[in-house]
């Protein structure tokens, strides 16, 4: 399970259910070109995405394919989207602040590097605004950085948002010259559920490149409720037993295995 497969039409998918009589595959893209009796090939690889400095300033989809119309990605490495979170020994306690540039947050509920923070609230209360302001405020701090290890790179994952909203965000970031240290991963509302499910893991893999190379990254998932809804949709189609509100039983594991990947590495493992 978790292996990429390719259909005769060129559409890719991921095998999620392995049963005696059949294999459950979710498709990344349009299913209109798929018909009964089509040949499906194993690719022999787990889903991976491009990562590295070449991603900075780009807008990509959940599979790491650029969607900003600025051509293919240059020099980059590939990283698996699903990896185990670092163990206890590899971590260091949270001791370094992650300045958001918002006085209320930095003084009352300071966020450390390697920490997770939930931004919760009713609709239209400014949750996304806090996140975007944090990215914009890094511009000033990054301009004072003397080395790569002092720069804070930002990854923004937009899940199930309108395309117009994502385009607006790109414009805000580029006008403030904040795109030069940011990566945008977008799985919009019009994208299939499997891509909305995958986007946070892809964004996390891109952020882990910086963490594992002694640098620092801030990742923002906006928002994870939409990922849970996409996962519910997939699970019901795969005939997995539903729980409360029709969510599958492992919906909490879906998020815990993602959020546990955020870590402050120990000095022995690069201090990223």
Automatic annotation (TrEMBL):
<dbReference type="Pfam" id="PF02874">
    <property type="entry name" value="ATP-synt_ab_N"/>
</dbReference>
<protein>
    <submittedName>
        <fullName>Atp1</fullName>
    </submittedName>
</protein>
<dbReference type="GO" id="GO:0043531">
    <property type="term" value="F:ADP binding"/>
</dbReference>
<dbReference type="GO" id="GO:0045259">
    <property type="term" value="C:proton-transporting ATP synthase complex"/>
</dbReference>
<dbReference type="GO" id="GO:0046933">
    <property type="term" value="F:proton-transporting ATP synthase activity, rotational mechanism"/>
</dbReference>
<dbReference type="GO" id="GO:0005524">
    <property type="term" value="F:ATP binding"/>
</dbReference>
<feature type="domain" description="ATPase F1/V1/A1 complex alpha/beta subunit N-terminal">
    <location>
        <begin position="2"/>
        <end position="44"/>
    </location>
</feature>
<dbReference type="InterPro" id="IPR033732">
    <property type="entry name" value="ATP_synth_F1_a_nt-bd_dom"/>
</dbReference>
<feature type="domain" description="ATPase F1/V1/A1 complex alpha/beta subunit nucleotide-binding">
    <location>
        <begin position="101"/>
        <end position="270"/>
    </location>
</feature>
<keyword id="KW-0406">Ion transport</keyword>
<dbReference type="InterPro" id="IPR000194">
    <property type="entry name" value="ATPase_F1/V1/A1_a/bsu_nucl-bd"/>
</dbReference>
<dbReference type="InterPro" id="IPR004100">
    <property type="entry name" value="ATPase_F1/V1/A1_a/bsu_N"/>
</dbReference>
<comment type="similarity">
    <text>Belongs to the ATPase alpha/beta chains family.</text>
</comment>
<dbReference type="InterPro" id="IPR027417">
    <property type="entry name" value="P-loop_NTPase"/>
</dbReference>
<dbReference type="Pfam" id="PF00006">
    <property type="entry name" value="ATP-synt_ab"/>
</dbReference>
<keyword id="KW-0496">Mitochondrion</keyword>
<dbReference type="InterPro" id="IPR036121">
    <property type="entry name" value="ATPase_F1/V1/A1_a/bsu_N_sf"/>
</dbReference>
<keyword id="KW-0375">Hydrogen ion transport</keyword>
<keyword id="KW-0813">Transport</keyword>
<dbReference type="InterPro" id="IPR005294">
    <property type="entry name" value="ATP_synth_F1_asu"/>
</dbReference>
